[in-house]
Amino acid sequence: MPHQMTYLHISCNGYDRNWLSNKERNAFKAESRRIFQTLGWTIHRGTNGVCDTVTKDQQDLYLHPTSFSGVVEVAEVPSLVEHFSTAKTFRCYHVDYYEEYTDISDEEYRAALEAKRDEITDFILENCRTKRTDRYIVDPVAARVAQQFEICRLCDKDRCNSVGIRFMSELIDQLLQQGRMVTAETDCGPGIRTATAKELKNSYRHPVEQLDGQISMMF
Asked: Is the overall model pTM greater than 0.85, yes or no?
């Protein structure tokens, strides 16, 4: 079953940016806990002003008084909404769906990126062109490209995307070694850009040297 980042928007009695009373807050917490426990979810109680979180299999929801948000099975949502209709302390009035999350391993993720190597390479070269040869990009290119081609995974809900960033860093290093990109030290640290046609031609005669591995480290 597909999993998606889901927001179940709710209107909560006694809440308007802050709780109007502890009584209403406690009533909401007690009822929301009871409903989710009835449906087989595990309650993780929040402390020090942090809201509760509930989990079930590979699903999780953060129970804020304006929305229950997290990655859930799409097929589970109708049942949740139906049970919310019995609630006395809150009302669910809308559901939004965002990114889909896939259950794949690191190896499968890397293989999926490898299958798009040519497309990713073209994207990097196109987006790293500069108008002048003395201009370089010092932003975290690998991280930005990894985000562009990211596959959201259930094992990485925080979206650290370490596999994607590592893949892009290695690809950028290869492009530098091939002379398809060039690097230089700038006032803001190591920078890179796409090689010009003249530089690319010369690179076949003079291999490009990297700045002691700094480029791969910055990404």
From this structure: no
The amino acid at residue 88 is K
d(CA 89, CA 110): 46
10-residue stretch averages of pLDDT, the chain, 219 residues long: 95 93 96 97 94 97 98 97 97 98 98 98 97 93 97 97 98 96 92 92 61 38
Helices 106-114/162-177 angle, 10° precision? 40
Among candidate residues 78, 77, 53, the one with its CA nearest the CA of residue 64: 53
Between the CA of residue 4 and those of 12, 59, 155, 188, what are the distances in Å? 24, 9, 13, 39
At 206 the pLDDT is 56
What pLDDT shows up at residue 71?
98
| Residue 168 near residue 190 (C-beta atoms within 8 A) | no
pLDDT given at position 17 = 87
Cα separation, 15 vs 164, in Å, equals: 40
